[in-house]
Amino acid sequence: MFKKLKFEIYPNSPLVEVIFEIRFLGEPVIACRRDVFFDLIRTDYSNLLVPQTKKGGFIALEPYRFEKRDRSAGIMLAVNRFSYYCRKYSGFVAFKKEVLKLIRKFKQAYPKINTLSRIGFRYVNIIPFTREDSVVPLDRFLNIRFQMPITITGKYSNISLGFIAKTNKGSITTRIETLKATDQSGEAILLDLDYAKEEGLSMKNINKYLDESHNYSRQLFEDLITDSYRMFLRGETI
Amino acid sequence: MTYASYYNEHLTRDVGREAMSAFSPLFPFPAGTAQERMPDKEFTGYNLIAPLWTIQRYQTVKPIKVHIYVEDNIFFAENETLIIVGTGKSIGEAIADLSNHIIHFYHYYQRLPDDKVTGDAIRLKKMYKTLFVEGE
User: Fold this and answer.
1) What is the least distance, in Å, from the CA of A95 to any CA of chain B?
2) pLDDT in tens, chain A (238 residues)
3) Domain residue ranges in chain B
4) Does the beta-carbon distance from A179 to B66 stay under 8 Å?
5) Is residue A183 part of a domain?
6) What confidence tens digit (pLDDT) does each residue in A78-114 have?
């Protein structure tokens, strides 16, 4: 469906983080031999952050983090999942290349993990805005209409909305929320898209899952934003 | 240092989400990818670039790119193309001040004859001439 799509890279992109995650049945080898994987990536991801005990939590399920020195990207590794997150996204080609490189190292460290229980791709956007007549100008940015009773005017002061929708091959979780810094120094709309698949997954097809999840998320983003906001993202501004 | 304490000390300082938020790391959606990753928590608001589509009652032909920042508790709203900065005690005040300046210069350049402008003013006069949607 999205095979031939080519997406442009926006100079004013609101993307703040992109994450790809694989989940699998718990493998104790990961808890026992984290060092094996760390040795393979420590040159680039040298900062080690360990989980803190939480009351009522299961420490074995909490991921270790291996981050780049400048914190621009990192890996989360737990007995049942592996995630890569990137804060300085320079386009899908570079992101995919890094994910595939890390997955190769993961397979090298833990060759027995072949079956996946879930893959997820998150596309987190933070869209700064200024109010118009004290109202969040949502329709300037997003093609979203709420069908409400007439007693609700549609002039929203704040928004917090989330839904999970089924897709052909998985689901997409969408979160739209207004954010405010506590010191009132700025406001933004959070647009958090999370594509997931949970059936018939295999390590061999990660390349395909990456393309599929990125294409879906990006297409959804393109469908959600208005033409006037796209103009701003492209740098067609005054 | 654990990342939980690192997170608390460095990332969530002075940052709060809306009190009415339906979501939190404690109550995420049931199957969220990398649920620990909540980049919105790192939203500080400093140094924002936001678009403006209307200046008072005027609709602009293109979004006006506004750089919003705070220095010494004063808010600044700046547009580099028009070389205008608005200031105020809040974002709203800074934007209103910026808007007043833009409207002032819009009328100023409209009145100014072409033969009276030199240098960068020629560019600005052209810019203001096509700044707003006609008929506004």
Assistant:
1) 16
2) 555 557 888 999 999 999 999 999 999 999 999 999 999 999 999 999 999 887 888 888 889 999 999 999 999 999 999 999 999 999 999 999 999 999 999 999 999 999 999 999 999 999 999 999 889 999 999 999 888 898 888 889 999 888 899 987 789 999 999 998 766 678 999 999 999 999 889 999 999 999 999 999 999 999 999 999 999 999 999 9
3) 1-43, 48-129
4) no
5) yes
6) 999 999 999 999 999 999 999 999 999 999 999 999 9
Classify domain B48-129 at the CATH topology level.
Answer: Double Stranded RNA Binding Domain (3.30.160)
Does the residue A1 lie in any domain? no
Q: Which ranges in chain A belong to alpha helices (H)? A: 28-32, 34-41, 92-109, 138-141, 206-224, 227-233
Q: Provide the 3-class DSSP secondary structure of residue B76.
A: strand
The domain containing residue A102 runs over which residues? 15-233
Residue A212 sits at the chain B interface (C-beta within 8 Å) = no
The rounded Cα B8 to chain-centroid distance in angstroms is: 28
CB nearest to B15's CB, from A124, A171, A182: A182
- d(CA A115, CA A100) in angstroms, rounded, equals 16
Is there a domain that residue A91 lies in?
yes
In this structure, what are the phi and psi dihedrals at residue A74, rounded to the nearest 5 degrees?
A: -165, 175
Which of A140, A175, A188 has the CB atom closest to B43's CB atom? A188
Helices (H), chain B: 3-6, 91-111, 120-129
Classify the complex by whether its ipTM is higher than 0.85, answering yes or no: no
With an 8 Å Cβ cutoff, are B23 and A162 in contact? yes
Does any domain span residue A3? no
A216 in contact with B, Cβ within 8 Å: no
Q: Residue A231 is nearest to which of B6, B48, B62, comparing CB atoms? A: B62
Task: Give the number of domains in chain A.
Answer: 1
C-beta atoms of B3 and A50 within 8 A: yes
Q: Is B56 left (phi over 0), alpha (psi -120 to 50) or beta?
A: left
